[in-house]
Amino acid sequence: MKKLIERGRRYRYWDFVKIPMSVAPAETVLRLINVVTMALMPVLQTLTIAEFVDTALLIFGGDTSKSIWKPLILLVLITAYTVLAGHLSQFMNLRIEIKLNREYRVQMVEKRARLAYTHVENNETWDLVSRVCEDPAQQIRNGMNNIVSATDILVRVFSLLIVLVGQVWWAGLAIVGISLPLFALAIKAGKSNYQADVEAKKYNRRAKYLRGVLQGRDNVEERAMFGYTGAVNQKWRESYEKWRTIHLKTEALYFVKMKGASLITVLLSLLIISILLLPLSQGLITVGMFMGLVTNTLNLIQMMSWQLAWTMSELAKNREYLKDLSTFADLEETDGALELPSEEKVPFETIDFINVSFAYPGTETYILKNLNLHLEKGRHYAFVGVNGAGKTTLTKLLTGLYDNYEGEILINGISLRKYSQAQLKSLFSVVYQDFAKYSVSVRENIQLGDVLVQNDDRVQEILEQIGLEMDLDTNLGKIRADGTDFSGGQWQRLAIARSLYSNAAIRILDEPTAALDPVAESEVYEMFGRISAGQSTIFITHRLGAARLADQIIVLDDGRVAEQGSHEELIGLEGIYAQMFEAQRSWYQ
Amino acid sequence: MKKYGLIAICRHGFAEKFKATPILMVIDLILGILHGLSFGVETMMQQRFFDKATQMMSGSATLGMAFGALAMLGLANVACQILNGVSNYMPNITNGKISGELSRKMNEKIGRLAPEIFENTQCLDDINKAEKGKSSVMNVADTMMSIMIFYVPYFGFMGWYLFTMKPILILALVLIFIPKALTQILRTKVFTKAEDESAPIRREYEYYENCIADREYFKETRLLGGFMFFKKLYTQVLDAMQKLRYKASVKANMTEFLMSLLTVAGYVGIIWLLFDSLMKGDISVGAFAAVFNSLGLMYNIMDEVICRHIGGVAETIGATQNYMRFMDMPERTGSASQTPEWGDIELSHVSFAYPGASECAVKDVSFTLKKGETLAVVGENGSGKSTLIRLLSGLYAPTAGQVLHNGVETTKLSASALFAGTSAVFQKYQRYQMSLAENISISRTEKKWDEAVLGDVSQMAGLDVEVRTFTNGYDTMLSREFDGVDLSGGQWQRVAIARGFFRDHNLIILDEPTAAIDPYEETRIYNRFAQMAKDKSALIVTHRLGSVKLADRILVMKDGQAVQLGTHEELIAEDGEYRRLYEAQEQWYE
């Protein structure tokens, strides 16, 4: 398969043809040939009408030497071709789109999956990604249609000009001389200035947000009790009206320019026709040719009135897409992101953080500051600390989502950066706070925990352990037709089952139970600890009741390890942990 | 489910349009008619010009006359282009205005809906899709209008023009219409069927794509090494989808191709009619050329009206349903505007079932919240605590039983009267992307305030409006997206508490947050809750049994029922749910 998304490639207009060409060469060529032949039809029609009218006039004059049937049949054939060839274009378009979906879209998805994780958490790049990846086949087709439409205009105009020059060379040349600058002007005027106004966009965003406040479900309680609909509606109205006024102005400008262009075309055509009246009156061209040329010119006005302006404004939009696409293709990737976990099990002995500091890309605040930490095989650890102390960040570093940290992280004494993605994948299993709820079958959901092994017996055993016995073929979620809905608690247990199925050396539980009350949470952690007895686990929690289950509690504070030890040791220290425990205890006893 | 027909939709659409901008609509109407006629006039002028040119050649007209006719043709062309521009631009003005007006009404309507409607998935779906439905309603109305004011005049004019030339020529319109109409009927059948078949598959493949690379699944799928797994599913479904589309489209294209042959036959028929009339000397060569030339335009316009507009209406009618249903949703009915005096709140045999749920979330609960009393509600997740406070405050109307505020039923009161003396800090308190002042004062927008008032409530909430975070004081915008600042979770919580304080109240509802909060913040929140409850009637929902020290009495919920009510000492002495909960918590914090 040809690589369509390459780092460092700058995508240009030509790529709108090149990309379809590489996935569907025959269809693309046919489509291009078709547009040219179709664009030549009007001029053919002109010549045929000329022939027909002249013959008809001869017949009226009593001269029957020429047959009227030939041009009449030709007229019919041209009309038929114009009607029918449209279908060929449509059909080619569809085939191209299907092939683009199979190759181009799939490559776009793969590129997304390979992205360095930092781009996923960065709103700006993620916006770009969403923009570029929205129906990408359609976007390429739009670009191609744009080129097709421009070709259509060019061929139609030039073929008409050639016939003009051929008929009365001086009139033709005069027309070319006058029309070229006028035509250039028309193109320039028709060129859309659709770069959406920053100001208008701001108001529009504001209005959209306020509508969310007025209509959203999340705030229905406050909205009803506080009764602020009237006041917020007023604010919304103001933003909306501001947006509307600016938007109207931009639109008006667009219309004036566009219609200005068509008016210029109208004037130009009138000029062409008046110039042609002279050779007509001198008998230099026939009445038929005159009528043919006039109808062709007038049709051109109709076409130009929208197609030219539309082509120009699309041109600008498509150029934006190319810019986005180039940026997207060049986004950093994580090597080995798509690999399976390594088949060879990576043993785990120790993890060491040595003077690790870390700030999220694009921010200046350090989340981890000179952190030092030592973890060993076969123990249960709990990371505790106030919000923002860096608990979750630690797991993101360990699992290789971010690697721009300062200092050194050693796994079994070897730098984490030396491990491949595949090895890290087989080393860690994480149940995140926002764990994934895959709308696939129960079996698939759990076996995703270890994609290398399909063992139904083991799945059954785990389901029994966590009290979620059910048919493995049950489809979950709303995607598949027979999907069943799970409650929040059931999904949670399923996520834990997935982790238990995993063969990973270290299991991490990153507060998947935050929405539960403390007792329920503690029970989940206890169950997990019991099943993972003898294995290495890390619990992350802000509820200290659950933390007591661990052999070692690590208290993070302001990006450092503040305290470390067993529950009893830490209570004995009378430090942060003891204070936090006391504070929390007072609310539960 | 109620279905709204085309007539009902149009009636609603027209009425709203005319109500919003009567004058613009009339102008729109007139311009539309002129625009439609201008296309016809242009064809006529073309014929006149050709006739003059032919006559000039035979000597019966002068060059000047030919130029005159050309000038008329030019004028018609210019008029046509200008009318085209203006009447295409007009909808920008009218629709923007109408759309704004309709949105305003929708916003108000939503404000008047009963909050429990948001728990009904069908209604929620209607609400969420009403915006799109609104555009569709306007679209349908627009289309019907443009058919009346543009297409009918155009074809009317052309019919008259052809008829006056030679009556039989009016057949041309019929020959254009029949194949197009047939095509559209067949197309709808073939396409709707294909769309019905492919929609679930499309959803499935888009879903797998998300599993591979959407934010929601990204890190987990990566760490699991799930790429290959999902890619396999993805490409399988994608292939199936494309095959289906291909098949459907070959079929549709074949049908259309056959229909096009019909169109071609129609063309041939018209050309023959014209040719015959020409040869018989009934029409001039100029008329032949002009009419022949306008055939393409007539086909295009017919195609536009039948395939794009009428076909489009058929497609969008589905989308209009959400909006129409939404506009017909019942609103909160209470109307008494007299706020009852501050007094006891009594629940008598109150039950409540969420829409569509077979079981009651709250079952037969009776108790009285005495004037000035602080009552704590405890219970496990899902025991009905949050539902209970919504019933007590009057946000929800009970399915059975009564909630009486000082003897007046909550359902009989208008929203403003009911909530006049009530404030709250909800579990899902809102983080409004507005200024700090707006964030606080939104709890009572009609109340006059100055910085001193805001200062007082902020202080009570423990919100330190320091200049490092709040660079603009109370005018600081609390949102990165709108060029403001980001607050931490703790700061937001305090803003929400300040909001609760700002609203003068006799009754306050305090629903504890379940989101991750560290122990220190937790302590602070409870202290502030205690302060808010002082001297007022208060209801505190909590799962931290230690915090019931704040309360005069405790209500224990289990499976939607109120199982115990009393002081801590009384309840701990009983062998019941309270003691069970208490012991379960205690063991973790010994």
Could you characterize the architecture of this molecule?
The complex is a heterodimer of chains A (589) and B (590). Chain A is built from 20 helices and 10 strands. With 589 residues, chain A is α/β, with parallel strands linked by helices. Chain A has 3 domains: 1-157 and 311-333; 169-284; 378-403 and 420-588, 3-Layer(aba) Sandwich (Rossmann fold), CATH 3.40.50.300. In chain A, the strands form 2 sheets. Chain A has a 6-stranded mixed sheet with strand order 6-7-8-3-9-10, with helices on both faces. Chain A has a 4-stranded antiparallel sheet with strand order 2-1-4-5, with helices on one face. In chain A, strand 9 and strand 10 form a beta hairpin. In chain A, helix 6 packs antiparallel against helix 7 (169-190), helix 6 packs antiparallel against helix 11 (287-330) and helix 19 (567-573) packs across helix 20 (576-588). The model of chain A has no long low-confidence stretch (mean pLDDT 87). Among the domains of chain B are: 1-159, no CATH class; 430-504, no CATH class. Chain B has 16 helices and 10 strands. In chain B, helix 14 (519-533) links the parallel strand 7 and strand 8. The mean pLDDT of chain B is 88.
